[in-house]
């Protein structure tokens, strides 16, 4: 979440005339703060500067706290409140190391929703899950139940370490639960094409 990283996105959007959502990432957990020698004050200052800059340039901003599910509530409240005041239109809860359980996913989404409500509402919530404990699909469904309005997924779950939420499994569950009415008849072909292109087995 630095102005220097956002500037090229602004320039591309302006040159092409295409709207681009700017996704700004910043570490939030005590582990990240300790490792990087960051203070919460520094993180808030960077957040305010970068998000404000992007919004002034006409960009929509999704503000992502890395390692959200291992962050303490006070840090999340400080960071998300700062981002909302600076004009972020979406907040992204990242289960960066697949630490969460479904109950934890629900709890953190509800907590973040309470911060959004305290700041006047109108800000969407994303859930970004990883598969380290193999709970990514279940956590995504729990996050949705709790109020997340956009769920991230990756083709056949490809991602760091053991992967991200598998988009295909998520879609199947959403259709079976009656939450989507998508035609998934092409999904096996899509998954096979991804597997062949990447060398990642299904």
Quick gist of this model?
With 202 residues, the chain is of the alpha/beta class.
Account of the 3D structure:
The chain has 202 residues and is of the alpha/beta class. It has eight helices and five strands. The protein has helices at 3-16, 30-36, 40-56, 73-86, 102-118, 136-146, 167-176, 187-198, and strands at 21-27, 60-66, 90-95, 124-129, 150-151. It has a five-stranded parallel β-sheet. α6 links the parallel β4 (124-129) and β5. α1 (3-16) runs parallel beside α3 (40-56). The longest helix has 17 residues, at 40-56. It is globular. 38% of the residues are buried. The model has no long low-confidence stretch (mean pLDDT 96).
How would you summarize the topology of this molecule?
Elements: H1 3-16, E1 21-27, H2 30-36, H3 40-56, E2 60-66, H4 73-86, E3 90-95, H5 102-118, E4 124-129, H6 136-146, E5 150-151, H7 167-176, H8 187-198
Helix pairs in contact: 1-3, 3-4, 4-5, 5-6
* Oligomer classification: single chain
- Report the mean per-residue pLDDT as an integer: 96
Largest sheet properties: 5 strands, parallel
Return the string of H and E elements.
HEHHEHEHEHEHH
The unreliable regions are: none
Tell me the overall shape: globular
How much β-strand is present in the residues? 5-15%
Count the beta strands.
5
Give the termini separation.
Answer: 35 Å
Question: How many H/I helices?
Answer: 8
In the sheet with the most strands, the strands line up as 1-2-3-4-5
Give the % helix. 40-55%
Could you say which structural class the secondary elements and strand pairing correspond to? alpha/beta
Report Rg: 18 Å
């Amino acid at each position: 979440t630095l102005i220097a990283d956002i500037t090229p996105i602004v320039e591309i959007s302006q040159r092409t005339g295409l709207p681009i959502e700017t996704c700004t990432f910043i570490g939030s957990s005590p582990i990240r703060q300790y490792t990087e020698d960051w203070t919460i004050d520094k993180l808030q200052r960077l957040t305010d500067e970068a998000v404000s800059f992007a919004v002034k340039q006409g960009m929509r901003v999704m503000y992502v706290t890395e390692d959200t599910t291992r962050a303490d509530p006070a840090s999340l409240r400080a960071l998300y409140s700062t981002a909302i005041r600076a004009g972020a239109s979406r907040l992204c809860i990242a289960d960066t190391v697949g630490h969460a359980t479904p109950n934890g996913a629900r709890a953190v989404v509800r907590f973040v929703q309470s911060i959004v409500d305290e700041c006047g509402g109108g800000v969407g919530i994303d859930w970004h899950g990883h598969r380290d404990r193999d709970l990514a699909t279940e956590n995504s469904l729990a996050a949705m139940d709790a109020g997340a309005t956009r769920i991230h997924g990756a083709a056949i779950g490809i991602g760091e370490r053991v992967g991200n939420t598998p988009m295909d499994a998520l879609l199947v569950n959403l259709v079976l639960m009656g939450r989507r009415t998508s035609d998934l008849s092409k999904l096996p072909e899509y998954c096979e094409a991804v597997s062949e292109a990447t060398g990642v087995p299904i």
